[in-house]
Amino acid sequence: MFGHMRSRLRFLAPALFVAASLSAQGTARVRGLVFDSVAMEPLSAAVVQLALINTSGGQQTFSATTDSAGRYDFSTLPAGSYGIGFQHAALTALGLDSPLRALRLADGATLDINLAIPPGNQVRSVACGGAPADSSDGLVAGYIFDAARGAPLSTANVTVHWLELAVVDKKFKAVPRDIAMTTGDDGAFRICGVAGEAQVQLSVAHAGFRPFSTEIAIPPGGALRRDVRLADSAVARGTASVSGRALHSDGSVVATGSVLLPDLSIEVPIANGQFTLTGLPQGTWPLEVRVIGYEPQTVLIDAVDGAPTHAVVKVGGRIQVLDAVTVFGKANTASLKTLEGIADRRRTAFGTTFLPGNSWLQSALYISDVLQAARGFRYLSMDSVIARGCIEATSILGTQRRLKLYLEGQPFLGDLSELQHQVQARDVLAIEAYPDPQSIPAIWRSNDACALVAVWTKR
After folding, report:
1. For residue 57, what is the DSSP state?
2. DSSP assignment, residue 388?
3. E strands in 14-156
4. Per residue in 205-229, pLDDT tens?
5. Highest-scoring range by mean pLDDT, 12-16, 152-156, 342-346, 354-358
6. Cα(184)–Cα(181) distance, rounded to whole angstroms?
7. Distance, C-alpha 181 to centroid of its chain
8. What does the buried/exposed string (b/e) look like for 148-168 if buried means 16 or more CB atoms within 10 Å of the residue's CB?
9. pTM higher than 0.85, yes or no?
10. Do 33 and 70 contact (CB within 8 A), yes or no?
11. pLDDT tens string 178-206
């Protein structure tokens, strides 16, 4: 009987979104929670559907929508045999049918029935064609929307990028991997075969909208769902706002620091754990929280008109400070001065530095090989990398910005290909990589720099 019930529920699902209860009344009650086991949070705005199967073969239907806590409640139900399931855009994005259950209600009975999107490994297995249970590949899925209109965006280009360790010419080397797709009329995307627990870059582009890029983490063999709302490329200011709190991992407030929205070149201070950003266009934005002595933390927020979006950011990953050591050897005055300068800049600037002894420096054939490991940078080819701050290459004033290169502390007029032709990786002492204008040290900031890479050689 349940198989027959399943087909009827699926057939009637579009009509149930009208959210009406038929005339039959009773004294039974069904209530419960709908949970998203992929996002690990209650699922709000899910339409829960009940179908009462009559002995004559007819069907009566009821529906309710979950609240912000994922809860639903049906009361005054007639006794009988039911099928229960739910509908939500998350199911479509993940490639799932509505999970259904059968139940029997007696007069006056109250049943607590919890429903859920399955765990990520089960979702991955269904959506990606039944990959092996021990596979570490994951799934990323979601919708792309026009932030201002709320409408799905078709023909949006969605790309995931990461690095994999491979043997090239009998040597271990980080090899770039890309998977791309284009959204359909419903704006949905679903990408299988994404490396689990790797540093994965999710990028979205569509004509007329600001490009979007952020780092994501997918559990091995699991799934991640992330919707993206793209902002109009012609809009630099809006009426949306974000208010938030910055906390340490133990729950104490962060006394001072800064919050950056690199895509809009906005930076605000943290004061006693509080921060506020105003005048934002509607859209999905990556916020970066920077606190001296800690690794930068990035969170995604959806800015919408109306009430402020609330965000809570946990600051963890304290930078390890090594004990003082005494090194005996022949001094290289120029190299020591270079390293002292880098140490000074690390106290106030936020980038990635590669110092003598770093494994990426030791194994690199080209400078671009090292930049594969730089935070906020994306490796495109041997002679091409792109920085987070350069994805949107035009500043608010309309001036064109580019990735600037420095060699021995002075501007290098050529591009990365010319720099690598002039400097061999084996001759590099250190590299500094700053992915956006806010992270560049003050001594090197300029109106035409969206990011900066400084290379120092063993002189």
Report:
1. S
2. G
3. 28-36, 41-42, 47-53, 59-65, 71-77, 80-87, 101-105, 110-112, 115-117, 137-146
4. 999 999 998 888 888 888 999 999 9
5. 152-156
6. 10
7. 17
8. beeebbeebbbbbbbbeeeee
9. no
10. yes
11. 899 999 999 999 999 888 767 788 999 99
Q: Could you tell me the end-to-end alpha-carbon distance of the chain, in angstroms, rounded to an integer?
A: 81
Measuring CA to CA, which residue among 271, 254, 261 is closest to residue 309? 261
pLDDT greater than 70 at residue 3: no
Phi, psi of 154 (to 5 degrees): -85, 165
> What's the maximum distance between 2 C-alpha atoms anywhere in the chain?
95
Count other Cβ atoms within 10 Å, centred on residue 258. 18
Partners of 285 in the β-ladder: 301
**DSSP 3-state of 380:** strand
Separation CA 95–CA 120 (nearest Å):
12
Q: In this structure, how many other beta carbons lie within 10 angstroms of the beta carbon of residue 210? A: 23
> Count of H helices and E strands in the chain?
7, 31
Q: Which residues contact 252 (CB under 8 A, 6 or more apart)?
A: none
More reliable by pLDDT, 331 or 49: 49
Average pLDDT, the chain: 84
Buried b (16+ CB within 10 A) or exposed e, 225-245: bbbbbbbbeeebebebbbebb
Tell the residue number behind the tokens 């990461």, with chain if given: 162
**Close Cβ partners of 262 (under 8 Å, ≥ 6 residues apart):** 286, 288, 388, 389, 435, 436, 437, 438
